[in-house]
Design brief:
This protein has about 500 residues and is of the alpha/beta class. It is built from 16 helices and 20 strands. A seven-stranded mixed beta sheet has the order 8-7-16-17-18-15-19. The structure holds flavin-adenine dinucleotide. GO terms for molecular function: oxidoreductase activity.
């Protein structure tokens, strides 16, 4: 075994970006991944010729056509990797009980659609979007790839981003506020307010008042200015590109390698102990496991200050998911589009488990994801972890809960049940098992104004964290940014 500078626990996008950048900066890096497939929430898996995304399928700014703000693309550029992507618009269809509504990246087309439902609301939406796009225009001059999470950020910002910082000054209020605050100022139309809540929920798992304004500004700016696109080969192609870049710069990835414990001596990290019993030493360990898994399972309680540990473990978690992964016959579905969101009941909270269902059919863009004449379908909805156990009722409960997803799919493909050739139903237990995540959570429910995502530092010298329970939060671009911040801090 070579002598290591860094061990990364987990090959989610956060772990891969941190590990790959550090390898690029000349460090000897080993990534230990518990699962036999790398990528965490973004891994792809195959069954009988169908290639499924396990999680994310909505991406902006990964191709080479336009300069992109996406931190993941910036990492790929540094690694010398690129992705083939397929652009598409409309980016999705929202199915409300009162009707179906296409969502376009092109803002004018989007507003025209909104105006057909509510002309007043469309004008309010325009004002809301302008507020957020002006924030995006300031943020875009600050390159994420240059940022770090320590005091050395200050000289970087002053020397490289001074004009951008000046431009940001008038935006200081909105940077710290929730999108809900911006919405309250600009939008009174209830239909458009629900639309904004829905878009925030899809992005952060929280509605407008829980989602920070820069996150939505970034999403809106990227999808409007750069466009929405799907990577050829699915989310696994992103993971593969990061691994290629990582290995090209000398990094080593071990899959099927579960880390049992982070080893700490006299307040300093000294390495990790694998489930197989082996001890691997390194002066730096980066955990890509969640905050609950890192502090609750991988460290001994006495390794952390008691109150720090207790506070960290109290971080609220967003619920887990029910999943349906289907292989279906494609005949007669030539007009099918790839992304759909179904809200079953407008009177119920959109965040209520089962009420909002997300559907992705990526084989409409990349036909190689399914055998000829078939499509791959992934549908998912929030579902609480509590109450799920592998007992005699498990199979029935699983089928029953999957009905929300089937009913949603019937809005898009009415005869879906007759088309199925492969069916995989996933519960919160499946999600937590394959993703090695505490209670299968989507991530930390840190609402705007109620707290901030913690940075990459920990109280233990040499131990760092990346991923969706660190700054800036949930989502592939965000966790790539967390990897950049950590790697640059350790450069
Ligand atoms: C259903 C779903 C749909 C989504 N859709 C989108 C989308 O369209 N667009 C978007 O941008 N984002 C989306 N997201 C969010 C995004 O996928 C995640 O925020 C992001 O991928 C999380 O990355 P991460 O690096 O934080 O951690 P993870 O992906 O959780 O990776 C952590 C890794 O660490 C490994 N690990 C944990 N413990 C150990 C251990 N002890 N030893 C070794 N390895 C360990 C795990 O196996 C895992 O591989 C979606 C998420 C889900 C679940």
């Amino acid at each position: 075994m070579m002598s290591l500078d860094v061990i990364v626990i987990g090959s989610g996008i956060g772990g891969l970006t941190a590990g790959a950048l550090l390898a690029r900066y000349g460090k000897k890096v080993l990534i230990c991944e518990s699962h036999t497939i790398a990528g965490g929430a973004a891994h792809s898996f195959s069954r009988r010729g169908f290639h499924f995304d396990s999680g994310p399928s909505f991406y902006c700014g990964l191709g080479n056509k336009f300069p992109s703000l996406n931190p993941l693309k910036q990492v790929l550029d540094v690694l010398g990797e690129s992705l083939e992507v397929i652009p598409y618009d409309p980016l999705g269809h929202y199915h409300f009980p009162e009707g179906t509504f296409p969502v376009y990246s092109n803002l004018q087309k989007y507003r025209q659609e909104v105006a057909q439902v509510t002309p007043q609301g469309a004008q309010e939406l325009e004002r809301f979007e302008q507020r957020l796009l002006s924030l995006y225009d300031c943020l875009k001059d600050i390159p994420t790839i240059a940022l770090r999470a320590d005091w050395q950020l200050i000289p970087i910002l002053i020397s490289r981003c001074f004009p951008a910082l000046l431009k940001l000054l008038p935006q200081i209020n909105i940077i710290n506020s929730s999108v809900g605050d911006v919405m309250d100022r600009e939008v009174s139309d209830p239909w458009v307010r629900r639309l904004i809540d829905l878009e925030c929920f899809l992005l952060s798992g929280l509605k407008a008042h829980g989602t920070i304004a820069p996150e939505v500004a970034f999403m809106l700016g990227e999808r409007t200015r750069v466009g929405v696109e799907y990577p050829v080969g699915g989310s696994g192609a992103i993971v593969d590109a990061l691994i290629r870049g990582f290995q090209r710069w000398g990094g080593e990835l071990w899959v099927g390698t579960h880390v049992e414990q982070i080893l700490v001596k006299s307040g300093k990290v000294i390495g990790v102990k694998l489930r197989k019993g082996e001890i691997i030493k390194a002066p730096i360990v980066i955990s890509n496991a969640t905050i609950w898994d890192t502090y609750g399972k991988l460290l001994k309680p006495e390794d952390l200050p008691r109150t720090y540990r207790e506070e960290a473990l109290k971080t609220p978690a967003i619920e887990s998911f029910m999943h349906l992964h289907l292989g279906i016959k494609a005949d007669g579905l030539e007009e099918l589009t790839g992304h759909h969101v179904v809200v079953h009941d407008s009177k119920q909270d959109i965040a209520k488990p089962g009420n909002t269902c997300m559907i992705s059919i990526p084989s409409v863009w990349d036909c190689n994801l399914a055998p000829e004449g078939y499509h791959v379908v992934h549908a998912y909805t929030l579902e609480a972890y509590e109450g799920w156990q592998k007992d005699e009722k498990y199979e029935d409960k699983k089928r029953e809960k999957a009905q929300f997803l089937y009913c949603a799919l019937e809005k898009v493909i009415p005869d879906i049940r007759q088309r199925i050739t492969l069916e995989l139903i996933g519960t919160p237990l499946t999600h937590s098992h394959f993703l090695r995540r505490f209670q299968g959570t989507y991530g930390a429910a840190i609402a705007a104004g109620k707290g901030m995502f913690p940075g990459c530092h920990t109280p233990i010298s040499g131990l760092y964290r990346v991923g969706d329970s660190t700054m800036p939060g949930i989502g592939v671009p965000a966790v790539a940014a967390s990897g950049i911040l950590c790697a640059n801090t350790l450069k």
